[in-house]
């Protein structure tokens, strides 16, 4: 008997060790795979966030680049046109200035010539007066002198006008040179801006290259993630299959060991009973000892086995009852701890001669409509349950019987019924 008990204990210990080792291996493998999957998912999420940031930063840079490049091209074209126009104007002014200078020199030469002629005529006029020349010759010379003086005045006036025009042209030339210098400075500024735009564009190209590398890396990681997911699914399927087979084998072994345990316990009980009977009836010669049907030891062992089986069933019944209570009350909580039912009553003699009810119960059994004072006016209401006037007490009790079961299970329940007098 002691050897049988030791063998049974060893079998139980071996089964427990086998189950623990299998569960440990499965838990370690599953934890490692889950940790690796979590790391890959975090890495993919990080790369996707970086890709999103690069895409978001890329769009405004490109828009800004295009906008500044268009503005620079337009401004450069405008400035080049202004420079060409002002250079043409400056060239025309220079040509006009040289023409005026040439005319001024010609006028000065003409002025000098006329002065010499005037002086010569004046000296001739003085010589003629001293020698007592004729009066008609003096008159002609005087007339020529007056004409010469008039021409000299006109030439001087024209010379002053030309001088003023030359001065204005010089001022205009200085102004044009100033504008050309400003345009050159503006072009230099635009060229510097263009250099900045080129640097921004190079940075944008670098960002594009980094973004492309990130996309390639993300695609590679996505492929790796897909392959790892497929491998993980296959591994999980294999582990699940192994686990199912192990559970089936373990369950079969447990059933076998339990059957063997029951047989051993039964044999132990029989041996104990027979040993006690042998001690008590040591001097008596038993005539019916070979009959297993009437052997008190066997009967006693069967009774003990039945009692043990009954105690096991009682324990299972108790655990099943606890589970039923928990599930039942969990269902009640899900359906609602507070419920409102409505039961409409039939017509009473005091309601008048009308045969049409002002309450319409909808087919869903949870809604009703009440007619208003005006034609076509209705008011809709929704409850957990609506009972028609023809509903009996048995159907009402069937609806609330679950609360009664909860009360029998030890939960607090309140059924509060109210209505108008006579309902």
Would you mind describing this structure in some detail?
This protein has 423 residues and is mostly helical. 78% of the residues lie in helices and 4% in strands. The chain is built from four helices and five strands. The strands form two sheets. It has a three-stranded antiparallel β-sheet with strand order 2-3-4, with no helix packed on it. A hairpin with a 6-residue loop joins β3 and β4. α1 runs antiparallel to α2 and α2 packs antiparallel against α3. The protein is elongated and about 200 Å long. The two termini are 76 Å apart. The N terminus is likely disordered.
Give the topology, please.
Layout: H1 2-131, H2 135-280, H3 296-335, E1 341-343, E2 359-361, E3 367-371, E4 378-382, E5 385-387, H4 393-408
Parallel strand pairs: 1-5
Antiparallel strand pairs: 2-3, 3-4
Helix pairs in contact: 1-2, 2-3
